[in-house]
Specification:
The protein is of the alpha/beta class. It has two domains: 4-62, DNA polymerase, domain 1 (Orthogonal Bundle); 67-335, Aldolase class I (TIM Barrel, Alpha-Beta Barrel). Helix content is 33%, strand content 19%. The protein has eleven helices and 14 strands. Strands 3-4-5-6-9-10-11-12-13-14 form a ten-stranded mixed β-sheet. Strands 1-2 form a two-stranded parallel sheet. Strands 7-8 form a two-stranded antiparallel sheet. Helix 1 (11-20) crosses helix 2 and helix 7 packs parallel to helix 9. The chain starts with a strand and ends in a 36-residue tail after the last strand. The structure holds S-adenosyl-L-homocysteine (SAH) and iron/sulfur cluster (SF4).
């Protein structure tokens, strides 16, 4: 039997593992701390564990993150790692340092099945779901590469599931990984500092609310079904009305929270004053904030980024109605590390149904 990779086990999984080898449950807590709080990968270094148990662990288990096969640092300090997850696939993780915090953007799948028109990952096709070890391994590796700030705090203070893939289609692995992030024996991040972003997979939203209600971001991108059907094809399955109802249910499980609506700004497609106005109807239904994301182009796309002045006017319409709006700064220029540019290296094994007509940018 192959040695179990303990890296992806949350508290419950770890207790089950120790029960399975005839050991006491408190060992789970000890080993979790060694792996995630201290970054240990070698059982021999776990000095408060008796020598014979260390030997037993070395025979039955391993702690194995994905291999780093490429990395880059942009002038603004943004760092990107290319992580090999198997013989055919590599995914990306990005660290974005900001004043007072550091955000790690993690991938949840090698590729994505959902084929959004404006997304480079979507255009790569889909290979497979990442395991919990491959997801939490991105944080484990970033922590070991970045270490601590001078003040003693970890460099990574926030995690967003906004890399490659649709997290709600891989909750089997995303939930244990998110639990490790908020576990005091794991990374000890507060529930609000871990954000899962979804294009609107409604059943997944309900499951996450029930099992691990961390912060939620929803990729809205259009105020009506006609446009959203084209930009975000999953809208045909879960239209805006159902998506908003799921947001409301989510907030029932996470009171005092809000939904972050992400909105990619596409020149001449979804960025007019009228589009902004009709978003107000949506905002009236759900406690929310808006995050405008200037489109990041990638090879082969015909879409273009909205000009800054139009983005400013769009934000103003929402702000005048009392909404909180932020416009995402483009980070990681020069290393293709901005939102939607992550491509990794995907062996596309699925034929995606091309359901969306190509959206034409205004000439
Ligand atoms: N699958 C999830 C999470 C990954 S994408 C989702 O779609 O929400 C993270 C965010 O980046 C989403 O809001 C997505 O719409 C946005 N995005 C994708 N491609 C982009 C691009 N080329 N430019 C700007 N944002 C993009
Ligand atoms: Fe998948 Fe999100 Fe990209 Fe859409 S935007 S293709 S859901 S990763």
């Amino acid at each position: 039997m192959a040695a179990a990779n303990l890296l992806g086990l949350d508290a419950q999984g770890m207790e089950r593992f120790f029960a399975g080898i005839g050991e006491k449950p408190f060992r789970a807590r000890q080993v979790l701390k060694w792996i995630h709080r201290r970054g240990a990968a070698d059982f021999e270094s776990m000095t408060d564990i008796a020598r014979d148990l260390r030997a037993k662990l070395a025979a039955a288990a391993r702690v194995e993150p994905p291999a780093v096969v490429g990395e880059g640092t942009a002038a603004d300090g943004t760092r990107k790692w290319l992580l090999k997850v198997d013989g055919a696939n590599a995914v990306e993780a990005v660290f974005i340092p900001e004043e007072g915090r550091g955000t790690l953007c993690v991938s949840s799948q090698a590729g994505c099945t959902l084929d959004c028109e404006f997304c480079s990952t979507g255009k790569q096709g889909f290979s497979r779901n990442l395991s919990a070890a491959e997801i939490i391994g991105q944080l484990w590796l970033a922590n070991s590469a970045l270490g601590f700030h001078a003040g003693g705090a970890r460099a990574v203070s926030n995690v967003v599931f906004m890399g490659m893939g649709e997290p709600m289609l891989n909750l089997e692995a995303v939930i244990p990984a998110a639990r490790l992030m908020i576990d005091d024996n794991g990374y000890g991040l507060s529930r609000r500092r871990v954000t899962v972003s979804t294009s609107g997979v409604v059943p997944g939203m309900d499951r996450l609310a029930a099992e691990c209600p961390v912060a939620l971001a929803v990729s809205l991108h259009a105020p009506d079904d006609e446009l959203r059907d084209r930009l975000v094809p999953i809208n045909r399955k879960y239209p805006i009305r159902e998506l908003l109802a799921a947001c409301e249910r989510y907030l029932e499980r996470a009171p005092r929270d809000f939904i972050t609506f992400e909105y990619v700004m596409l020149d001449g497609v979804n960025d007019s004053g009228a589009h902004a106005q009709s978003l107000l109807g949506i905002a009236a239904r759900v406690r929310c904030k808006f995050n405008l994301i200037p489109f990041n182009p990638f090879p082969g796309t015909r879409l273009r980024r909205s000009p800054p002045e139009r983005i400013r006017r769009f934000a103003e319409v929402l702000q005048r109605a009392g909404l909180t709006v932020t416009t995402r700064k483009t980070r990681g220029d020069g290393i293709d590390a901005a939102c939607g540019q992550l491509a990794g290296d995907i062996a596309d094994r699925t034929r995606r149904a091309r359901v969306a007509p190509i959206v034409e940018a205004r000439a």
